[in-house]
Each structure stands twice: as structure tokens, then as C-alpha cells.
Amino acid sequence: MNATDANSAVPPLGRSLLAIALVGIGLVLGWALWHQANAQASLTATVMTELPNSGVTNPVTAVLLNFRAFDTMLELAVLLLVAVTAGMLGERRTAPAGERPAETVSVSPLLLSLTRDLTPVMILVSAYLLWVGAKEPGGAFQAGAVLASAGVLAHFSGRSWRSDHRDTSIRMLLVLGTGAFLISALAMLGVTGTYFDYPVAWAGIWILAIETAATLSIAVMLYVTFCAVMPGGDRP
Amino acid sequence: MSELTSGPALLAWLISLPLLGALTSIALKHGGRWPALAVVIANLGLACWLLASTQSAPLRYALGGWEAPLGIVLYADTLSAMMIGITAFVGAVVSWYSLDYFTRDSSSERTFWPLWCLLLTALNTLFLSGDAFNLYVGLEILSLSAVALVTLSSGLEAIQAALRYLLVSLMGSLCYLLGVALLYQAYATLDLALLAEVSGSGMLERAALALMVAGLLLKTALFPLHFWLPQAHAGAPAPVSALLSALVLKATFYLILRLWFDTLADAATQMGSLLLGLLGCIAILWGSLQALRAQRLKQLVAYSTVAQIGYLFALFPLLNDPRVAGAAFDSVIYFVIAHACAKGAMFLAAGNILTAAGHDRLADLRAANLPSAITLFALAIAGVSLIGLPPTGGFIAKWLLLQSALQVGAWWLAGVVLLGGLLAAAYIFRILAVCFDISPPPAAMQPSSQGAIVSAGRQWSALILALAALALGFLAAPVLDLFDANLVTD
Amino acid sequence: MSTSLLFSLCGIALFLLGLYVALTTSAMLRRILAINIMGNGVFMLFIASAYQRGEDGVLITDPVPHALVLTGIVVAVSATALALTLVCRLHELSSASHEGPE
């Protein structure tokens, strides 16, 4: 408590009142939940009935990429939005003051060899996570995050991947994930007549293709966002 | 219900098209503005189509063919169609303005168009989605793109305002999401229509409604939760300020309206409506007083938004009263669309003045360094609508409000509205006084702050929005007919 | 008290603790972390609602809240990234304006 006093914006009296109010809210919410506790509502049965029509066997993946694919598409749009904004802010920063050369700090040989040995493993792990997502926990975001962390490791060992969002290839990769969702949703309007309605027979392949695109895109979006904040990140 | 789903995939297109615009705009190295503009124009067409289609019956569309509660269902009635229509119209005019506002191919310009398309995607999602969690994702796109748009003005203050806006928005979204989690725990459904059927007036529904509305109020900036608004709206580039004030606040207000009077109507109490009404009244007076004291033009316009949001909530006690609910709903929708046009015009005109004079300090502005009469005319008409004088849209909205208030004997409300009109007149005349001030500008600030020439497109777009606010005053009957066609009020 | 209820109450406690810190602290980084903790409290509530026992005592888990939380996490990561980017930018601008023009 006393440690936080230094950087508190609120006087002690205000904080006490706030704490009391929050405890009150907590009690009300707890009481409401307590009374609801024996209600046994769930969507498990509904999901399980439709699971054979989803193209995957992992129910969570079925919800994410089929039943509620629309949510997932918008979620990727959120990530894209942040990557584009971070890229813009990073560009603004490096544009006038390009005086700082690419970090000339010497990189430890240990880090270099670690990067060299780990990068292929991380790419493999990423591919595995992507593949296994259809059956067990895993999927595009986890796979993309592992791939992006390989990029972060490379950045710290002085061998940055390309991250300039003004590159055409980088921009294509940025929109790839959201684009795959959107294009397939719209294509289904032509094929099955319903937005996002994958035909059962090839839903599995279709979902894997979308997830692969999403994985690459997520990795690039996370990496571009990271580099936009790092000093000297825009340099090849 | 199934004959409704046979309707067009129009609802899905209204969300996909802006998203497609955003993606194309990011993918293109140069000229990302053109796909964005094409999308904005197509969106206007789709919005008109939606308005026409909802006249006979509400539309619903189950995405992926998965019905609720498993899937996400889009839903449109005349209220959502009106909101989408006004968004499309104001958005199109602001896009025209933006074409000349940003330096071509600057990093701000290249980022503006995708972000604006994403903002439009979020707005249309919020107006159409019938799924509580999908609305959360929509809210996050809305806030993050709004925050990102504020950062397009590069100064320290804009970044500070954007950061504060972001953190406040995140807290608001999480409050909303906590309410959704409570509802899911009790009913295992996220579909608003299903929730409306099953939810009662128990403790849990009340808690969920309170959390969701509190979170949305924070984003709608109802007094006393408006503290983040003036800096964010005044600090943003002019077209962004127009979008934020005219449209973004209305989207969260629309959700409050839906939750309070439809989805969780049983849990909403008379006391709650009265409380919101009182806060609305305080917002009218407080926002107007702050606008009177503002030093800068854009700050003044931003505080005027705080006051105008107050009117929307001041109507809540009337909306609960069966005697006047119909007229009060008409008044709400008229406030929303008239304010969207007038405030959009005002911020665009303020942006023109800022460019022409090089600053927007009210004390130092003189008639000599203002842009041409077109901008000033826009400013004047928009001002008249904000005050609520005939023959403008603002007048119709206020007239409906006063009529309903007097009919149920809510004299205090009528008093506040009249006082709010007087205060609005006072702060609008502060701006107009500048236009006739031909005294020489203070010598101290002659050389440095020479402004630039404002293009004709920027002047005319401001005027068009102002003229729309004026036209709303003449077209009250047809516009309200469009809205009342099949409104589900109970 | 069932396991699910216990986790729900913990989720609410996390949310409120996060809210308290977010409202009282003035350090930006601390505030961003606090908001993340609020989010985690909400996610915990979702996860708790997935955890139920069938009538024969068998554990059944609802996949929908899991999917919602996964979506929520990505959104939270994105929002945190934007907040941190803005904090960095703010830091650079304010240090530049302190040492820049004299």
C-alpha cells in the first residue's frame, strides 16, 4: 500500500471511498451470482450436435472458425488496426530523427547461436500448433505468436527481419489474415448462398487454409507492432 | 422468421464492404484513398437500400447459416437503418472534406483512409449485430480506430488525449463485457433477441444492465464521465473530430437505447431512467457553461457536444412514459441525426478556420483571417440548429421534447431545455461575433501564424452538412415516417 | 460452494482490484497492467461459466466461452500494444520537448 502512495492520483480519502464503493459492488455482484449458481445453462449440447457439420473435431476451433468466424475476422481486424497505427507512429518517429544507427551494441555469441538453433525449432513448433488446432488446443494465434517471437529473437541478435510496413510484401502479409476470412465469407455467398457458410465436405481444408493465412499474418502484425516501438527497428 | 432470412445478404455486405475497403487501402502503396472513397459511396447506396427494405419488415440474417444461440445473427429495423443512413451520409461528406485536408501521400493520409474504413466497419457492426459478444469486438474496433485517428495529429497533447481516451474506452468495454459474462453465466446465450425473451428483472439482470450501461456511458461521455472528451475531440484533426462527435458517440448511445428499452427492458427501473435524465440535464448546463468559457474554437465545439449528449439522456424519463413514448422516441432520433449534421458541419468549419487563420484562439481571431463566406454560412446554420431555432432539425427535436415534457408535466425538464437553448445561443454568438470583428489582430501574433488557403471542397462539404441540418427542419414529416414505419416499441 | 462459483467470485474480485488500481494510480504502465487484470477477471468469469458438472457428476465444458476468451485475449493484446505504443511515443515527445528548444 505505502509503495503506491507515491504515484497515486487520488487523495487518501477518495481512495478509501472508492475502495468502499468497489467492495459494495463486489458484494452485490457476488450475491447475484450466488443466487444464479444452480442454473445449469450451457451451449455444450448445441455445439456437440453441430460439430460434425463444422469440418473440425476440436469444439473450440469449431466455434472460433466456423460458428463464430465473424468474431474471429473482426478480431484480426483489431490486430491489423493496431499494427497499421503502430507502423504510422514508428515511421513518424524515425522520419525526422534518423540519427540513431542500427544498434551497434555487440551481440553476445551465445545469443547468436541460440537464435540460429532455435529459429528452425520455433518455425516447426508454430507449424505444429497450427496443424493440431483442428483436433486439440492450438491454432492460428498461438502459432502466429510463436513465429513472431522467433522474429523478436532475431531482432535482438541484430538480424532483424524485414518489418517496414511501407514494403509491398509486408503490407500484403498484414492484410492476408483478415482478407482470407473476408474473401472466403464473400465467396461462400456465391457458392452456398450464405455468408460464411462453408460446405460441410471441404470445411476442414478450407478452415486450415484460412488458419495458415491467419498464422502468417498474425506473426507479421505482431512483429511489425514490436519493431515500431523498438529503437532502430525499421532498419533492415 | 425464416422468410426474413431469405432477404438479401445486404446486412452482411454493409459490414464486409467497409472492411474490404480498409484492406485494399492498406494493401495499396499509393492512392489508398480511392478504394476507401468507392466504399464510402457504395455504403451510402447500401444504406438507402436498407432504409427502403426495412420499411415493410425488420431484416435478420444468420451468419454462416448458424442460428442463435450458436451463431451470430444480424438484425435491422428502422432504428438501425436510420443510424446507418445518417452514418453513411455524414461519413461520405466528411470523406470528401478529408480528400483536401491531409497532405497527399503523407503518413497521416495513408493511415487515415484504412482507419476510417475500419471505423465505418465498426459503426455498421454496432448498428446491425444482435450478439452481445460480437458487439464487444465491434466496440473495441470502434474505440481503437477512434483513438488511432486522434493520434494522426502529431503533437504531444494529441497523444496524451488519445492515450487517456484509449484507457477510458478500455475500462468501458470491460465493464460492458463483465455484464455480458454475467448474462452468459445465467442464460448461456449471447443473442440479444433471445435474451430479451428469457431475461427477467432479477438481481443478476439488474447488475448486468448496470455494468453494461455504465461502460457504454463512459464511452458516450455523459456527465460526469465526459472528462476525456474535450481534449480528444478538440485535439484530433478536424475531419476526425467531426466523425467522433457526430457518429462515434451515437453508436454507443444507440446500444444503451437498445439494452435499456429492448433487451433488458424488464430490468431497467424508473429510478434508473430518472437518474440518467438528471445527469443529462446537468450535462446540458455544465457543457454549455464550459463552452462559454472555452478559449479555443474547437474546445468550444467539443464542450457543446457534451451538452448535446445531455439532451439525448434528458429524454430517458419521457421514453419510459407510455403517454409520450412515441413522440419522445421521435425526438431522440431527431436529436441524433440533427446533431450529427450540425456538429459535423461545425467541426469541419472549425477546421477551415484553423487552417485559414493558423490557430483557433477565439480571442485572437478576426474577420480578416477567416476563410470565405461559405464556411461562415455553414457555421451560422449549424449554430442555429444547435441552439434549436426554427427552421432547423435541432428545432424539431427540441419542439418534440418540450411538447412531451409539458404533456406529462415535467416542468423542470422543459425549464432546463429552454435554459440550455439560451446558453447555446450565447456560446454560438461568441463564434459569430468573431466573424464580424474587423478590428486589426493583436500585433504580437502577426508574423508566425500565417494560415493557408482553404480549398473549395472543404468549404462546400461543411456547408452541405449544415444545409442538411436545415433541410431536416423542413422534412420532419417524411423523415419521421421513415423511422416510425415499423418500430418495435413496447 | 461449487468450483464454478468460487472461480466466478475470484474473477469479480480480480476485476474490481484492477479497477481500483486503474482509477487510483497515475503511472501509465501500472494503469495499463491494471486494465489487463480487469480483463483477466472477466475472462475468468467466462471460463467459470464453461465449467459444469452433468447430472451424473461427469465434467462437461462448454466450448463457447473458451472461444470467446481466446478472441478476448487477442483483442486485449492488441489494445495493450496500442496503449504501450502510445506511452512510448508520449515518452519520446515529452523528453524531446524538454531537451529540444531552450
Determine the oligomeric state from the structure. Answer: heterotrimer
Uncertain residue ranges of chain A: 1-5, 96-103
> Which two chains form the greatest contact, residue counts included?
A-B, 53 and 52 residues
**Helix proportion of residues of chain B, in percent?**
over 70%
The string of secondary-structure elements of chain A, in order, is HHHHHHHHH
3D shape of chain A: globular
Give me the count of strands of chain A. Answer: 0
Query: How much of the residues of chain A is beta strand, in percent?
Result: under 5%
Low-confidence runs of chain B:
1-6
**Total helical segments of chain B:** 20
Share of helix of chain A, binned: 55-70%
Strand content of chain B: under 5%
Instruction: Tell me the overall shape of chain B.
Output: globular
Strand order of the largest sheet of chain B: 1-2
Mean pLDDT across every amino acid position of chain A: 84
What are its keywords?
heterotrimer; A: 236 residues; mainly alpha; disordered N terminus; C: 102 residues; Helix Hairpins; two-stranded antiparallel ribbon; elongated
Notes on the protein architecture:
The complex is a heterotrimer of chains A (236), B (490) and C (102). Chain A is 69% helix and 0% strand. Chain A has a domain at 61-92 and 127-236. The longest helix of chain A has 27 residues, at 203-229. In chain A, α5 (69-94) packs parallel to α9, α7 runs parallel beside α9 (203-229) and α8 (168-191) runs antiparallel to α9. Chain A is mostly helical. Chain A contains nine helices and no strands. The radius of gyration of chain A is 23 Å and the shape is globular. Chain B has a two-stranded antiparallel sheet. Chain B has 490 residues and is mostly helical. In chain B, α5 (107-128) packs antiparallel against α6 (132-150), α10 packs across α11 (238-263) and α13 packs antiparallel against α15 (325-357). Chain B has a domain at 290-490. The model of chain B is unreliable at 1-6 (pLDDT under 50). Chain C has 102 residues and is mainly alpha-helical. Chain C has a single domain, classed as Orthogonal Bundle (Helix Hairpins). Chain C is 80% helix and 6% strand. Chain C is built from three helices and two strands; from the N terminus they run ααββα. In chain C, α2 (28-50) packs antiparallel against α3 (63-99). The longest helix of chain C has 37 residues, at 63-99. The model of chain C has no long low-confidence stretch (mean pLDDT 88). At the A-B interface, α2, α3, α5 and α8 of A face α2, α5, α6, α7 and α9 of B.
